[in-house]
Batch of 2 targets.
Target 1
Amino acid sequence: MSDRTADVVIIGAGIVGASCAWHLAKRGLSVVVLERERAPAMGSTGKSAAGVRVQFTTEANIRLSMYSLPFYRTFAERFGHDIGYKDIGYLLLVPHDKWDRHLESVALQHRLGAPVEVLDPVSAQDFIPFDTEGIAGATYGAWDGVIDPHMVTHAWVAMGKELGVRYRFGTHVTSIDREGGGWRVGTGVGSEMTSAPIVVNAAGAWSGGVAARAGLDVPVGPKRIQIFLSAPISDPRTYPLTIDLATGVYLRSEGERVLFGLDNLQQEFGFTEGVDETWLEHVLLTGVGRFPWWDDLGIDLKGSWWGYYGVSPDHSPIIGANPATEGWIDACGFSGHGIMHAPVTGLAVSEMVADGGAHTVDVSGFRHARFDSGDVAVETNIF
Ligand SMILES: Cc1cc2nc3c(=O)[nH]c(=O)nc-3n(C[C@H](O)[C@H](O)[C@H](O)COP(=O)(O)OP(=O)(O)OC[C@H]3O[C@@H](n4cnc5c(N)ncnc54)[C@H](O)[C@@H]3O)c2cc1C
């Protein structure tokens, strides 16, 4: 096979592209990954809050996590790469009006084997100080926590290279055309082209634009998400990734500090840049009722950052063959869940290519057709 041909071309070397590349190479396929940045994980992957959790409301999403979290938990032992996994947990604080539905989700999580504990508001305060007003109870996921998205992406890149994956960094895909039964992918680097029968679109928040270059409609667009960092706090405890479901405000320990935020999913699509101090003020005012100690919280504005969610119409990913053409697989639109669901996505994509369909984990709920048929349960734990 020439240097410019492959079985599969992947566009994007974020956590999803790197997982797909390694999983495909493991199945004996030749893979080229085209990434416009000079290194892996420079897109949304390097900007995330790094959280991984099983606490979802739909069976489809819980199953993605039930594959992916044990994969991360055993990564170092199986593959010899530390990926910074820490089981600090996710603590969800649930208001009265959401409690009954929340407990139904917990029952589903338990049925699928997820270790999730139900707590009363007082015992939940062992984890983090908060005002219990309006809170019916809390749930704590013991497998939930954080990984280091840079470390895991770089690990998959190294593991992929060992199996022959060819990474081309600094390579911006600017054209994608039909060639015979496959694709000819052009880049801004001179007139270099890469040809392959199959393209995997793992371009994150840019996936809609990448697909458009091939004349395809993939309903994924960017929304700016901001994360704020506090000055060091005095409490020596490590706070789990705690989400107040009454307001959507979240926080967790980051060393001696806390990082915190509130996703603005109502915003228009667009690559808006920068940290917005008005939004910071809104987050602080929204969160201080639940976390009264925020009254004295110092803010490290320079340490705060932003990145992009790649957002689909129902905030769940699109994982599957694009129905408008042949040889094109989308793996994008993960909103705030691409870190936690990268392992299962790579596996599913590799099975689609090598076996004609994903079979280890059912990802049919994430196919394109759901937007037409409307027959898929909508996830409500979107954060
Ligand atoms: C602030 C924030 C907090 C988040 N918190 C979490 C969290 O706690 N847990 C979680 O699971 N997820 C979280 N996410 C979401 C998560 O970061 C994403 O879902 C995930 O990184 C998506 O990975 P990806 O590989 O699909 O995309 P990316 O990492 O964005 O990778 C796509 C790559 O494609 C490249 N690319 C784009 N266009 C082209 C082109 N034309 N040619 C070549 N290359 C191209 C880009 O340069 C980029 O490197 C968060 C996101 C943000 C912004």
Target 2
Amino acid sequence: MNARSNSVGQIRSVSAWATENWRFFRMRVAGLTNQRAAMQALLAELDGYAATYKEVTGRSMRDATIFEIGYGARPLRLLALTSQGLNAYGIDLDTPMLTTSLGNLVQIRRSNGWLRFGKSAIRSLIFDRHERRALDAALGARGAKLVVKSERFLVGDVVNLQLPEGSVDLFYSEDVFEHIPLTSMDAVCASLAQALSENGVALISPVVFTGLSGGHLPEWYPHTLQKTQSRHSKPWEHLRDRRYTADCHLNEMRLSDFEALFARHFAVEAIRNLQPDHGRAFLSDEIRNELHSYSHEELLGYKWCFVLRRRPHTP
Ligand SMILES: C[S@@+](CC[C@H](N)C(=O)[O-])C[C@H]1O[C@@H](n2cnc3c(N)ncnc32)[C@H](O)[C@@H]1O
């Protein structure tokens, strides 16, 4: 499937693009120092999926057919699940760089263009090796070993995904639904709802636009908030002056938009604010007044997890 990447090319000026990507690069370099903790956190997150799946369905995730929407350029969750022998698959617009090879880079250039090619080459040569080694070590502590099953990584637009009815027990998705165009949202949800098994669960966790990090500017990424660093943009710049643009497509959906969307297609079991109070230190009285049309909850949230089930009597 040929699909255009949505994680490149939104910024109009070359200098703005270079600045955004330079900040992103520095963030990745800084991340090289704590890979071990990052991989343990990743496995703990997957344990969280298993716990929710068990809680909601009474069944073990080991027996589930699992499907990830938007596994990303660093598809660590899907690699971790498949390496541990779980029956997991996923789809992404961008061709993943599962192993470093010229052939893979050429394929990425063909499918997703030159910019994605450049980003993938840098990522693969500098970061992937470290990250995969750390993942292998974290899996080793659980008696597993990193194995790359490339057939589990589908490439294409989720809006065109056609899965057999009732064939998936667990969908999950992290940081993806805020990037899907508004015009595709209902079609995507309808397709996932029909593919969900009778007793299945979907854990969809978007970054909601109205939070401090919702504008996807690297200088407001969650891990930067503890640091006293100088920034070019204001807190909640994306809801205020909007002088800077993230290097990706954002549909700008608010919490209530997601709630209404999911309620149209699923039974909404729970809505979890995964980082309540995110960015509180930056919400001055002045900004609060300026942003009075947004609720406290939606300004002080980051990622939200929607726990969804198949609606009874869905044809
Ligand atoms: C911010 S990244 C998140 C990746 C990964 N889930 C993670 O947490 O690291 C968003 C991913 O969603 C993918 N994506 C966005 N829209 C998509 C679509 N319509 N179909 C498939 N993948 C999509 C992008 O290609 C990108 O890899």
